[in-house]
Specification:
The chain has 252 residues and is α+β, with helices and mostly antiparallel strands. The protein has two domains: 2-75; 80-251, no CATH class. Helix content is 36%, strand content 25%. The chain is built from six helices and twelve strands. The protein has helices at 2-7, 9-32, 42-75, 99-106, 119-124, 174-185; strands spanning 80-83, 87-88, 94-97, 130-131, 134-138, 144-151, 157-163, 168-171, 201-207, 213-220, 226-233, 248-251. β10 and β11 (226-233) form a beta hairpin. The chain is elongated. The protein starts with a helix and ends with a strand.
């Protein structure tokens, strides 16, 4: 109920104002033409009461339509599960990353030993591969569109055009790609990967099949568990103009 009043406050205030103003306005008009009318204004007061009743009925109908629309929007919202733990990278799941950024890493002039272009994909092709990557899973039959993820308040962005229903993906940020690049550059099988790239906060924007734009914030604890801490509806996406955030992907 409170959400309805907040979302439709302007319309409701306008209706209340019309009811309040219409009384004195009718009185002024009727007084100016009273000589042309029946001196008994009871019929006009009844008319004014009927008008008030119609306005109230319109508010009730508007509220019912709002509830139906909210029910439809809620039914189209996906059920998401996020995890940033050290986990198995399951076969058959897409791994999203920014291939142009990786290409730039391995072709920097200051690199004394360049890695192969396929080194990133080879990193995930190992049998029983585990990694501290962000897993993003849709647990119901509701796809999402225009998915955008920001890793921390000042971290990198990724943009994914669409995720199908009942799908699990892994998303590798630029900071994570930096960590993988540093690990592979050591050329030491005994070297350990570092996971300082994991942010304390994830900011997510996506659009549902009902064209509802949703914003969510997830806190990430030391164990990589993600907890939804904020959710907003009917939001505007942040501007990403001038840079390429669209991810490429491959299937392990």
């Amino acid at each position: 109920m409170l959400k309805y009043f907040r979302k439709n406050s302007k319309v409701l205030l306008l209706l209340v104002a019309l009811i309040v103003v219409s009384g004195p306005l009718f009185s002024i008009i009727l007084s100016s033409i009273s000589s042309l009318l029946n001196t008994n204004l009871g019929d006009w007061l009844s008319f004014y009461g009927a008008m008030t009743g119609i306005v109230i009925s319109l508010v009730v109908i508007h509220f019912q339509l709002y509830l139906e629309n909210e029910k439809n929007l809620k039914g189209q919202r996906p059920k998401l599960f996020l995890e940033y733990d050290y986990q198995d990278i399951k076969p058959g799941c897409p791994i999203y990353y920014q291939d142009k950024y990786w290409f730039g890493l391995i072709h920097r002039k200051e690199n004394s030993k360049k890695l192969a272009v396929r080194s990133f994909k080879n990193f995930y092709s190992e049998e029983g591969k585990m990694d501290k990557a962000l897993s993003f899973e849709i647990q119901n039959n509701r796809p999402v569109f225009d998915l955008q993820i920001q890793f921390g308040n000042q971290g990198s962005y990724v943009a994914i055009p669409k995720l199908s229903e009942d799908q699990k993906i892994y998303v590798v940020s630029k900071e994570h790609q930096d960590a993988i690049f540093a690990y592979l550059s050591k050329n030491n099988k005994n070297a350990k990967e570092t996971f300082t790239h994991v942010p304390p906060l994830l900011k997510i924007y996506y659009t549902t099949t009902a064209d509802e734009k949703i914003y969510q914030e997830y806190s990430v604890d030391a164990n990589g568990y993600c907890e939804l801490v904020k959710e907003k509806y009917d939001v505007n996406y942040p501007s990403l103009s001038g840079k390429d955030y669209i991810c490429d992907y491959f299937v392990r």
